[in-house]
Amino acid sequence: MGNCLRSGGKPPSPPATRESGGGGGREEESLASYRGWPSAGSGGRVLDAPRLRVFTLAELRAVTRGFKPEMVLGEGGFGRVYKGWVDDRTLHPAKSSAGVVVAVKRLNAESVQGLQEWQSEVNFLGRLQHPNLVRLLGYCGDGEDRDLLLVYEFMPKGSLENHLFRRGGSFEPLSWATRLKIAAGAARGLAFLHSPETQIIYRDFKASNILLDHDFAPKLSDFGLAKSGPAAGRSHVTTRVMGSYGYAAPEYVATGHLYVKSDVYGFGVVLLELLTGLRAHDPNRPTHQANLVEWARPYIAGGRKLTGLMDQRLAGQYPPKAALRAARLAHRCLCGDPKARPSMDDVVAKLEEIDARGSRDSLPPRPRPVPAAAQRSPYR
């Protein structure tokens, strides 16, 4: 399944409270103001309307150095993401030596999917403020080529997907403490989306949508598939299933019914990826292991030893009891019955408990280096 989105109309009227371009008297907002956003321990807030800077296409050309190929950070189905620099206070284009780094996503306005993603990002991320949601700083929707652009804070560590599944280079194996930190932070972001004052179904929770800052604090990104409501145990009914294969809840795939608890299933899949270091679906694995959830069930349900499940790159350096509790939590999140899955508030509480109790659990001792003399074969 890809990011298939319903059709959209014209871009929405600019919802921002600030202007760009020349002239005085405009309201100025800065990146510095975002540092006053909710702290990591708070629950975030919802604004009545988006508060975003409206950029011109000329400004974003300057920000990204003309959208040069060497500025490309990544590329998706609906466009590219470029690296750029803006002034810390005015968000105007700046030199790399004087500005702060931002990420500029350039979407294809001719595609229905690109337009819908642009609208969703502005309408959702423009109003939501939470330490575990990526910050949308502004947008542009009036280019001569009908380009649609979005400007975000830059996340220097990239995506969780890269750190879990890419080998070599600058990607070192994530420690147990870092994995638990990422799981807890992502859970807080999802719990905020599900809160009564927000009531948003994220619908595309996966490792590639979890971005990491310089300290590996996670933030949810890409709200192109997000939907408002419904509350409690009610569901959306869609005629076209959207999301990513391996992460979508079984009831959604089978019936098109989308619940808040469908997001919880996706979280369970990512938690399983954090434990195993394996992708949710990998056709290159043996047939019985291609689907991570099905292969892992005997382990997380308690039928097999957990050591056979854990990421080998952890080299046994994790508290066994904490890992067992995390596996049991993943099992609950992956329950076939949506009603039996925990709420994300419950998931956050459980992960915080695992972290607190796990800090008291001792790590297995690291194996001692074998003396060189003892390593020699007696047959040489």
TrEMBL record:
InterPro entries: Kinase-like_dom_sf, Plant_Ser_Thr_Prot_Kinase, Prot_kinase_dom, Protein_kinase_ATP_BS, Ser-Thr/Tyr_kinase_cat_dom, Ser/Thr_kinase_AS
Reaction catalysed by this enzyme: L-threonyl-[protein] + ATP = O-phospho-L-threonyl-[protein] + ADP + H(+); L-seryl-[protein] + ATP = O-phospho-L-seryl-[protein] + ADP + H(+)
EC numbers: 2.7.11.1
Molecular function GO labels: ATP binding; protein serine/threonine kinase activity
Presence of keyword Zinc-finger: no
Entry keywords, A to Z: ATP-binding, Kinase, Nucleotide-binding, Serine/threonine-protein kinase, Transferase
Biased segments, Low complexity type: 371-380
The Protein kinase domain, residue ranges: 67-354
Keyword flag Nucleotide-binding: yes
Annotated region described as Disordered, given as residue ranges: 1-41, 355-380
Gene3D superfamilies tied to this protein: Phosphorylase Kinase, domain 1, Transferase(Phosphotransferase) domain 1
Top-level taxon of origin: Eukaryota
Residues bound to ATP: 105
Protein name: non-specific serine/threonine protein kinase
Organism: Aegilops tauschii subsp. strangulata (Goatgrass)
